[in-house]
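Raw record, unedited: Aldose 1-epimerase
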Amino acid sequence: MKIVSGEFGQYQGEKVYSYKLENNQGMSITCITLGCIITEINTANQNGEFENVVLGFDDVDSYIEKSPYFGAVIGRVAGRIDKGEFDLNGETYTLPQNENTNHLHGGPEGFDRQLWQASTFEKEDEVGIEFSYRSKAGEAGYPGNLNVRVTYILNNQNEIVVHYFATTDKDTLVNLTNHTYFNLSGNVKQDILSHELTLKSQKVLELNESFIPTGKFLDVANTPFDFRDGKKINDAVSSNDPQIKLVGQGVDHPFLLDENHNEEICLSDEESGRKLIIETDEQSVVVYTSNMLDDSFTIRDVQSSKYLGICLETQGLPDSIHHPEFSPCILKAGDEYKTTTIYKFTTK
């Protein structure tokens, strides 16, 4: 087990540092202090060849100018907040609108654009890094000073364990996730349309024309959103279902998870033999098939395009502050927000 650190670049006059965590099997994860961004995850295919399985860049400017949240921690609130406002304890809070009238992923200066403090630790069977950030009261319009910690741990079972913690001095909203785009083909040799996704989920949230949840849970049976027995991504995104067409001929929807910490999310690629198992204590996962990616930039040496990666964003339900029937994403003063997601990489 080892950790290698270095300088990644500069942002707003301050240094951005990178940290590469490597286990005894040769698997590694590299992340940076800008946005807790995961820039690379190198894992073996069925032939033992190590390749990168996430989308990312090698310089700060690309993340700032081009990145659709590649690999970043999203906060204070993942997903969209309708009309960029909410009421809490009798007060109305106005947030910046950065997607039409929506407040998206914490706004234009969300956690993905912040520099985090980092400290590393090494144990016999795992290595890790803890990022910390203090989001001051009023940042992006949110109430309360929020102290956030995010920990990435790599162990010898080829698992990346992600812990999220937060405390506040005033009731506020918190719903954190990681926005990594996975592509198990290795070094982005092809798109993710032939990847197979399996979800333990019977319900998906319906979206309106602004991509905001209507509040209606749809039964996935006999729809392109039924991944319970495994389905290739292409079989879903090629559908004429109105919800598929709504988000640009793809998936960008929250799925309610039936189980937790029991292989509830599985992604596999037959050609490389790679398999990713995700377990979480969150109630939902937002599946995004990168249907909004365009060809206006390159990802390292690969031309960006639709369906080049898939995001599996474990989180609370989006826009829950406007839906009393959802579990709220309200963190009360004095309480602790705490959640864990585990990513296990293996081969078939």
